[in-house]
Amino acid sequence: MNSADERLRAAARDAMGIFPPDGDLPPLRLPDPAGGYRRAGVRAAMSRAGRARIWLAPVAAAAAVALVIAGAAVLHQPTSGTAGANLAKQRANAAAMKSLQKQRQALDALVVAAFVPATGPQFDLGAKLDWMVQAQELHATAKCMAASGYHISDRPAPFNLAMFADNTQMPDLPRIARTHEFVGPADVTSASYPKAEQNVYNTCHATAAVPYQQLLAAGQTLNSSWWNVISRIQASSKVQAAIPALAACAARYGFPNDPYGSAPGPIKSFADFMDWVAGFLDGAGSRGASASTLQALARHWSGVFVTCARPIVGVWQRMQLAAQPGFLNQHASEVRRLDQLAWQLLGHQSR
Amino acid sequence: MHHAEPGLPRAGWTAGSPGAGMGQPSAADQVTLLYRLHGMDLIRIAAVMLGSRAAAEDAVQDAFCGLFRKWHQLSDPHKALPYVRSAVMNRCRSELRRRARLERRADHNHRPLGAESPEQAAILGEEHQDVLAALRRLPDRQREVLILRYFMDLPEPEIATAMGISQGTVKSTTSRAIAALARRLKERS
Fold first, then answer.
1. CB B149 within 8 A of CB B159
2. B86, B150, B170: which to substitute to probe chain A, counting the most A Cβ within 10 Å?
3. How many helices (H) and strands (E) does chain B have?
4. What is the pTM of this model?
5. B39-78 residues touching A, CB cutoff 8 A
6. How far apart are CA A287 and CA B181, in angstroms?
7. Residues A205-223 pLDDT 10s
8. What ipTM is given for this predicted complex?
9. Which residues, numbered 112 to 171 in chain B, qualify as contacts with chain A under a Cβ-Cβ cut-off of 8 Å?
10. What is the pLDDT at residue A264?
11. Who contacts B11 (Cβ-Cβ below 8 Å, separation ≥6)?
12. In degrees to the nearest 10, what's the CA dihedral of B137, B138, B140, B141?
């Protein structure tokens, strides 16, 4: 059999034939710069107070909605005839209103964490939004399948943070230190099901997912813009200034000793460090190390990772936290729309 | 050492072109020229990463629009190509992240949503589907380093720039990626 290298080269030659350098390019559609600048001008002209008001609007709107709901509830209370009973009801309504407001604020915070996270813990928190969507879809899918005579559990798998971890750009150091779960998720293995059942599942799941597509697509657009900010911060001179300390820390734990036997280059970025540490686990895994060996390695190297990463991650997290409110101000209308969508779709689940 | 990019619209910065005011080509002209020269190379790597020509074209289109918006901030025209290359990689990563999110949601009870679409299968010939599938199952950084090296034929310094890592890491990541790919191909066979 050909080596992986040869097979890659053959595939690349094939790709070159399918996408030749002088092949047919779709037309490039550039944006209208005037429109873009005009919008930027409006943003720049906006006062700090004005921007703050825009960002506060979702919270204010949430409070207003809660007030309206509570008010309506009060209006629909039958009169009891006793002042004491009315007072008790008013208190109960006030408590319900406060609780609703808190739930909405919590969901708004989840939306920000899901699509504009500034720290590893925020990133992990945001993963819960995915999980909530997942739970809703599963419920709807199970109901739809039951109508066709197939029964699946509508109980979602427990929330698993390790499934969502991003240790290269958003490492959650406190979690890694606590759990020693350093590596990403294992490969997903898919069981096979009878074709008819699978088809019903696919159709039901596709239908169940429709209501959430708008939320996730809008969130993804915002998330992509935010990721540009994150990448810029993590490539900034302030963060780069923390690299020598990171390299020195790695040297204390054996760098450039490498589990693959190849000499790694100097550590010039966080990704270099991450690759080096991850190599010890990948390397052991690929050599078929036992579960207990892998566990011991994960315990050791997650500790090294947290110790060495803490200073540089601290630098960029401070910068990301500082950039986050400005970004949210700039994208206030998108965030507000996401909050509204999330509340419509998931509000009842968060209650 | 700075590597001059072949085919960059270097002349455009000094020589001017028809239709541009003040004897200088407009940003749109220069971005369009860069797109004509390198667009297909970028679509190729994006297609291999994403498994879809349409998604690849979208990613490249977005990256060039981003370059156009930032054109006036570029201190050096030679940075345009590395910039747009990184932008394409970032967009592909972002798209893959979005898909991973969808796949996780689709994976209740370990039920797959179905096989790849015919378009995904048509990105390369049948005989290379195993390689593509194995490539897509590699960790992000290993996959990217192989795609930039084999499908774009970039030298190590340029891979390092596009990925924001050192040349040494390009070397070690490449050797790990090849080993991992060989292992996955063996598993599949």
1. yes
2. B150
3. 9, 0
4. 0.55
5. 39-41, 43-44, 47-48, 57, 61, 64-66, 68-69
6. 14
7. 888 888 888 888 888 888 8
8. 0.74
9. 112-114, 123-125, 127-128, 130-132, 135, 137, 139, 141, 146, 150-151, 153, 163-171
10. 64
11. none
12. -170
For chain B, the domains span 1-123, 126-189
B53: tokens are 């020509």
Q: Which helix (H) or strand (E) holds A219?
A: helix A195-234
Interchain contact A128–B (C-beta under 8 A): no
Question: For domain B126-189, which CATH number applies: 1.10.10.10, 2.40.150.20, 1.10.1040.10, 1.20.1300.10?
Answer: 1.10.10.10
Angle between helices A83-115 and A48-75 (to 10 degrees): 140
Q: Please give the Cα distance from A221 to A231 (Å, whole number).
A: 16
User: What percent of chain A stands above pLDDT 70?
Assistant: 73
Min Cα distance B25 → chain A (Å) is 15
Q: How close A91 comes to chain B (CA, Å)?
A: 41
Q: Go through chain B and tell me how many residues it has.
A: 189
Identify whether the C-beta of residue A211 lies closer than 8 Å to the C-beta of residue A345: yes
Terminal Cα-to-Cα distance of chain B (whole angstroms): 43
When mean pLDDT is compared across A193-207, A222-236, B107-121, the lowest value belongs to B107-121
